[in-house]
Give the backbone structure.
Amino acid sequence: MTDTQTQPLKLVVTGGAGYVGSVCAARLVEAGHDVTVLDDLSTGHADAVHPGARFIEGDAAETAETLLAEGFDGVLHFAAKSLVGESMQDPAKYWQGNVVTSLRLLDAMRTHGTPRLVFSSTAATYGEPESSPIPESAPTRPTNTYGATKLAIDHAITSYALAHGLAAVSLRYFNVAGAYGDLGERHATETHLIPLVLQTATGQREHISIFGEDYPTEDGTAIRDYIHVADLADAHLLALRHAAEGEHKIYNLGSGTGFSVRQVIEACRQATGHPIPAVVSPRRAGDPAVLVAASDRAREELGWKPERTDLIGIVTDAWNFTQARASK
């Protein structure tokens, strides 16, 4: 198999016009790889595709067979439906869009001998964990359809690796945040805390809601693990390098350090210079008190170490991106 440390690879990035996919595609191009981005633009943005990448607008399920016939060294699969609430209201959209699409992609990879896969998985596969930090050995008991579909894909990848020699790595993200230059979060439906707080700073929201202040944490608000999107992208490059034929490896990706909702709001106040009013609301059902990743396996086996772990730095990158978008 080609040594990914020294040789450029010919790669497909599905969902490469989305938030995480676009940053990863940019980092791959910068590393000298030959990148083709495949995205249907249902949630992505064409202007987020790196100018050094080839862009094909299309659905991964419909396009993978024809595209992979060209011959590629690997696929990084980001394309997915990812709204937790919507997944519970419209499960068919998620089983079709996530699982069926991924199975068709896996079949196309098998047919055309594409040897490597790096899959964008999620901490939602764990559901409500029994303890924190969460290791990869924790029970997988997703509490929503989104997490269930991602876990189903992980199971399928394991089967294909064992049966067909696929070299596969799944990366389970915790809370991705920050921006990479002019690439950042701009979802039509925003559910992530940091961009929601920044929307309050820009006047798009009157206040930010704090859902519960009676958790068993130091300030009473829930704690989450935030990872900078550029650190996350770097993990994908390392995963490509360490993927092994016939094996499916799974790694949690997080900073290993949790920040409370109040800490995030305060960091946003410092980064923006805005007061950002906050209103306490009741807890949301199913929200655990603490979700923090144990990323020891990724550090030891991939050699991955997050470098952008300062919360104010993460927020500042997101704020700079938000301001730059507003001025366009």
User: Anything to note?
Assistant: The chain has ten helices and 13 strands. The CA atoms of residues 19 and 184 lie 6 Å apart.
